[in-house]
Design goal:
Elements (H helix, E strand, L loop, with lengths): L5 E4 L4 H9 L3 E2 L8 E3 L2 H7 L13 E2 L6 H4 L1 H18 L21 E4 L3 H10 L5 E5 L9 E3 L2 H10 L14 E5 L6 E2 L2 E14 L2 E6 L3 E4 L14 H4 L3 H4 L12 E3 H11 L2 H22 L11 E9 L5 E7 L9 H18 L22 E6 H6 L34
Parallel strand pairs: 1-2, 1-3, 3-4
Antiparallel strand pairs: 5-8, 6-7, 6-8, 9-10, 10-11, 10-12, 10-14, 11-16, 12-13, 14-15
Helix pairs in contact: 1-11, 4-10, 9-10
Length: 423
């Protein structure tokens, strides 16, 4: 269908609007006919609610899947990954193999997590196995570090319950849901400071799964040197890497924003740990991301009018084991530095090139499978359809040491299924 794309957004960010205008797209009001709507998660919830009964037409695209929260709500992400593990175990997949202690060997990439108040008794049982451990509590539906705190005593949980005006853990209706996760208290440090990775992953379709990794991710650093000391449990400048938190610190650097590019991290790790070890680490990060997407694919509403750019948060511990912390449905498009602004402008540009092929109004044949030359800084992370057609879709049933259809070509000393080129 010929013609200019008519766009709407309820997120007034220059990196978005400049990209729309560069393409010559036409801005219209929400109540007019539109083709492309970059909307907040609140708006997408309203658009696809049962009450509205709204259905997108063939020539409309939005930037979220209807039930994206299956991946981006902290409690639902964990629930879906647990279900995925059980399904693989039931199928007899080698990926669900456990060690002598009953711990998953390959699928142990999310910290031990419980939902509160629902899983309080299970949490207490786990806590008492290692009473010196530290746990981190997060509200399920919030972002940017809001409402997060650390605990190392059961009495702190009880205080939280009292403070939130709930007399019983059994009474759940009036209480905001939280997750409580075992805190990674041995993070890899650089310059004595904790950091995490923010990686951008674009999903164009869940069935078949097709996803892309953005090459220009970055690390976010804390402004205060890390210590596991209990005296610093309340110091979020030590423990939380969120820019929304760190920008209020006395030592926050407004020039680089406390960020490193992923390429800088690679260079650092190659020089301190070796190239082979570094390559294995990034292979495993990519593998974890695909497994998390496969975990939610069966329950995701695969509307052909939708795509989504997720912000993955990964922490690396001092043994170079990556941990999936959470996935964000609306990664921040606010620019804290000049480099940040350039990165996010290019991110949106490359995302639109994939989501809206040729920058034209889509039609019923729209399949979001662009040629390689328009990917920009994205690379294909996983293409289920192509993997099945050429026989590389083996990662769900591969025995350790066999090809898996996952990006990379380096075998694991640990015996984890070999990672081969993802299609």
């Amino acid at each position: 269908m010929a013609g200019k794309v008519k766009w709407v957004t309820d997120i007034e960010k220059s990196v978005l609007i400049n990209n729309f205008e560069k393409r010559g797209w036409i801005q219209v009001a929400e109540n007019e006919d539109w083709n492309f709507y970059w909307m907040s998660v609140q708006t997408i919830r309203n658009v696809f609610s049962v009450e509205t009964g709204y259905r997108l037409s063939d020539d409309q695209i939005v930037n979220h899947f209807p039930n994206h929260y299956e991946l981006t709500r902290k409690d639902l992400m964990v629930k879906n990954i647990k279900r995925y593990r059980k399904e693989l175990e039931k199928e007899g997949s080698p990926l669900a193999e456990k060690d002598e202690n009953g711990k998953y060997i390959y699928l142990d990439f999310v910290p031990v997590t419980f939902m509160l108040p629902a899983d309080y008794n299970l949490f207490v049982e786990e806590f008492r196995k290692n009473p010196s451990s530290t746990w981190i509590m997060k509200p399920c539906g919030k972002a940017q570090g809001k409402g997060i705190f650390l605990i190392n005593k059961l009495s702190q949980i009880k205080k939280w319950s009292r403070d939130s005006k709930t007399s019983s853990f059994v009474s759940q209706s009036s209480k905001e849901a939280y997750v409580i996760s075992l805190y990674i208290n041995n993070p890899l440090l650089i310059g004595g400071k904790k950091f995490d990775l923010r990686l951008y992953v674009l999903v164009s379709t869940y069935r078949p799964l097709r996803c892309y990794m953005y090459k220009l991710g970055f690390c976010r650093f804390c402004t205060v040197k890390y210590t596991p000391s209990t005296s610093e449990l309340d110091n979020m400048f030590v423990h939380l890497t969120n820019v929304a938190i760190q920008k209020h610190g006395d030592d926050y650097n407004h020039i680089h924003g406390g960020k490193w590019t992923v390429s800088n991290l690679r260079l650092y790790l190659e020089s301190t740990r070796g190239k082979e070890v570094t390559n294995k680490l990034f292979d495993e990060i990519h593998w974890i991301i695909v497994q998390s997407l496969k975990a939610v694919a069966p329950v995701m509403n695969n509307d052909k009018h939708c795509f989504e750019c997720y912000g993955y948060d990964i922490i690396i511990d001092d043994k170079l084991k990556p941990w999936l912390i959470e996935v964000n449905a609306s990664p921040s498009l606010t620019s804290s530095t000049a480099n940040d602004r350039i990165l996010k402008y290019n991110l949106i540009n490359d995302t639109l090139n994939i989501a809206v092929p040729n920058g034209e109004i889509p039609d019923c044949k729209w399949n979001k499978s662009p040629p390689k030359e328009v990917l920009g800084n994205y690379e294909v992370l996983y293409d289920e359809e192509m993997a099945q057609s050429d026989g590389t879709e083996r990662d769900l049933r591969a025995r350790p040491g066999q090809p898996t259809g996952v990006k990379g070509s380096r075998a694991r000393e640990s015996g984890k299924p070999v990672l081969t080129t993802w299609k």
